[in-house]
Amino acid sequence: xxxxxxxxxxxxxxxxxxxxxxxxxxxxxxxxxxxxxxxxxxxxxxxxxxxxxxxxxxxxxxxxxxxxxxxxxxxxxxxxxxxxxxxxxxxxxxxxxxxxxxxxxxxxxxxxxxxxxxxxxxxxxxxxxxxxxxxxxxxxxxxxxxxxxxxxxxxxxxxxxxxxxxxxxxxxxxxxxxxxxxxxxxxxxxxxxxxxxxxxxxxxxxxxxxxxxxxxxxxxxxxxxxxxxxxxxxxxxxxxxxxxxxxxxxxxxxxxxxxxxxxxxxxxxxxxxxxxxxxxxxxxxxxxxxxxxxxxxxxxxxxxxxxxxxxxxxxx
Length: 316
Description:
This protein has helices at residues 3-30, 32-53, 57-66, 68-89, 95-102, 105-117, 123-144, 156-183, 189-210, 219-247, 249-252, 259-271, 277-294, 302-315. By secondary structure, the chain is mostly helical. It has one domain. It starts with a helix and ends with a helix. InterPro entries: AA-Vitamin_Transporters, EamA_dom, EmrE-like.
């Protein structure tokens, strides 16, 4: 990955890490369904505009009609459901904590692919799964029994339910990945993104209208809506697809490891969220487990390497 692509990867991680900040700001005023409906609606309009500007609208619409059902399923599993679950979680959890739980998405993806697509799970990947979920437990424990004055005053039960919602959102992403691989292979990624965002908008619109807040919505909340829709959804998807095209999917997916860093950073800087040593340690455990489960960290034959090095040195 060249320096330009690497910089784009960090910008993408900053944008997706910022989504947890914007959700935390907007969900209190707007509520779960209205905020997420606005997010996917603005994102869909942005992506439709990009298709039109690139002259790909007509073939994209044709594909969307042919693949309407798979696009609807992915729209629910990859956008509508997880976005709402994360928004519900952030009524209790901080933006930083939620972004760390989001990093378990590849763990769920590996489990679903093993159960559904018969992907192989090596002992190293199984160990990564165990380590990653142990990190989540440590993180939730830190939040449930935090005594810091800046910590949220939520009960342990509310914290546990919020964490379960965030885990369910991450699991939904994992199911969506396998479903996409099985039913939408070969479809242009921008078409998939536009179709799924449009489907998610249609699904969430009735709920948004029903649960629309009776009171006035603050300017901060509207700003969060724009940030979520334009920057964290429309623009971020465009950058992600560009990275997949120029650097490959394996490298583009490494953004997963950077998102929690920015999620914690933005929450601490703009919302004065608590960052404890326990939280930082749990985040590190989750990321190590995810790296093992996804194959980013592979077993290195240290003994053989050292013997080879000794042989080379003896011959020198």
